[in-house]
Specification:
alpha/beta, Purple Acid Phosphatase, chain A, domain 2, 5 helices, seven-stranded mixed β-sheet, globular, 416 residues
Amino acid sequence: MNQSTPHRTKTRYGRSWWLLLALAACHSRDLGAPESEKGAPNGGGDASGGTSPAPSVRPWVQLDDGHALARHARTRKPIRGIAGLGGSGAVPSAGSSGSAGEPATGTGGSNGGQAIGGQNAGFGGSAGSSTDPNAGGPSAGTGGLPIVDTDLGPGPITRFAVIGDYGVASSVEAEVARLVRGFDPEFVVTTGDNNYPSGSASTIDANIGQFYHDFIHPYYGKYGGGATENRFFPTLGNHDWYTPNAQPYLDYFTLPGNERYYDIVRGNVHYFAIDSDVNEPDGITSDSVQARWCKAAALASTAPFRVVAMHHPPYSSSSHGSTLAMQWPYRAWGIELVLGGHDHTYERLELGGVTYVVNGLGGQHMYSFGTPLFGSVARNNDKQGALFVEASATKLVGRFVDITGAQRDVFAIDRR
């Protein structure tokens, strides 16, 4: 069942694309909402379904040598919600925690970056003692974004975007989609819940095709032309399964394998789409038919990086929490990056030599955080956005960027 698709690779882009992406995101907030937003349910932005207010001052962006993108007001004060961000690794290390919520001072912070009112959590390094397993991760933050070596080295770069919990036909989904187009990815992957509220055929094109039709092939919807080859690779979420057999999803997309779970190889990345829903006929536990397929294909892969995406996250510090059934032995199978959604937050955890990312900020309203799990080194529920990933033959770099153009997290994974 190992599906290998002919891939296209791109040579390295100059750093100017990142500045252009941020500027496009900033200016996109002046654009109108999509036609279908009127009366659309669950339109993200806040818990009541409204959209986030526009900033009162025009932001500016700064690009530095480490690709770190910061958004400031004219006063050049740090953006709200960025606090200390912990390092990764299994060995606890000392450092000064970031302050709560705002601004990102990086000195003696409280709550490891947990923000005001418990709703807008910033990025959390450990608060107080860096060895406290409930304080946001094994390493303390130093304020703002971490210092990460993002040099991908020579050779072709594979670039893809990750969105999750997005299919609501809202103005926020439109902003995330514009952000994704600005990154110009080779393909887009999702972490599920593509079609709210119930996965029905009557809403699927408005929820997905309206914003991402130019990545989909074949595309038979009403919002324009499709791609010449498929560049959109979703995973099933619980809302997609609310319609029996997830039939509208299976009818709408043309995907490899059995279409519920499948794999593709694109450039330097071997991508596995996993169905984590309890309705999956081939099971979801680590000894299931689906898991055995994933194990065999991952161990046989010769790609520099193996990435798994699913809806229900193995680990999460937010409302739905961790999914025990999906805590497969990913490292033993050679998998470096595991993507999930379900919780409408952004969170990165470093556990057992594997990077876990929860990315459910593609358009829906946002969730709050509970007590951070051990290994949680980055958290954000301040603004929706997307994760952008670049992979060379030796390094994978991920950046979460919100709809204002602010880079909220950056991480790097070296090839094993």
